[in-house]
Amino acid sequence: MKHSIRNTLILALTLVLMLGGGWFILDYRYSSQIEDLEQRKNQRQQELQSVSQTAALYEQTLEELSRQYYIRDNHPKELFMNHRSGRVYDYIQELNSGISFTNFNYTVRDSVIQDKYGIVTIHLRGEGEYRNLNNFVHRVEHSSAIMHIESLQITNITELGKLSRVTFEMILQLYYNRDDRLEWAPRRVLADHLGDIGHNPFFPLIHPVPPNVRNQVDVDASRVVGITSQFILLRDQNDQLRRLTVGDAVYLGRLNRIDTDRQEAIFHLDRGGIFDRVRLRLQ
Length: 283
What we know:
Blueprint: H1 3-74, H2 85-95, E1 103-108, E2 112-113, E3 117-129, H3 130-142, E4 147-156, E5 165-177, E6 223-227, E7 232-235, E8 241-244, E9 249-250, E10 253-259, E11 264-271, E12 274-281
Antiparallel strand pairs: 1-3, 2-3, 3-5, 4-5, 6-7, 7-8, 9-10, 10-11, 11-12
């Protein structure tokens, strides 16, 4: 056998022995470690796939979150935060402030509990200006909290000096949230201008006139004795000399104008809902 062939065979055998020995050593000593690494690799690949899916949904989720915030912020009505009497009272008092102020007594009935919401019944009984009561009703109806006016009874006041006021009895139903995870404070409507009221239907058009307890000048029982461009002199119902300038108050009205050309004084009077213009000439 030639030396070259023999050397080739020896090298080939040596290579086979080295490969076989190396494989045996790796399989015998490192097989468990290789299996652990394979398992960790598979686990990492699964985690990477899950994270990749979450990242792919991030933009979509962020867009949906923005849409839900927009709906929440612009929705005209929402459940009240809870049924705690302190918060309910504070909310009613905020609606009853400023141009909506009325005096009332406040009671709360036991709440009616539903699956995801409850109902608090609020009983208000009080007195106030009709205009203010109208503004309070406007705020109740237009605030974001879901409130229902179950009943409203209004009674006019016939006492002089309070003809623009009314007594009222109102029952409100406030719907509140029972899920603490969704708790937030409702928004309020506190606009300064809530609409003009043409006429108070509970104010009598014709009503008795108040007595002259302040002993003001009674135009019907007085006579003018002197006129200048700045003031007038007259004898009142008690034959006393009185001096009046434009705008001064008299019984049931005011001195409106002095006409020196015609030598007369013009008064505007309110005779219990009947508006009258009286002219007194210089005697």
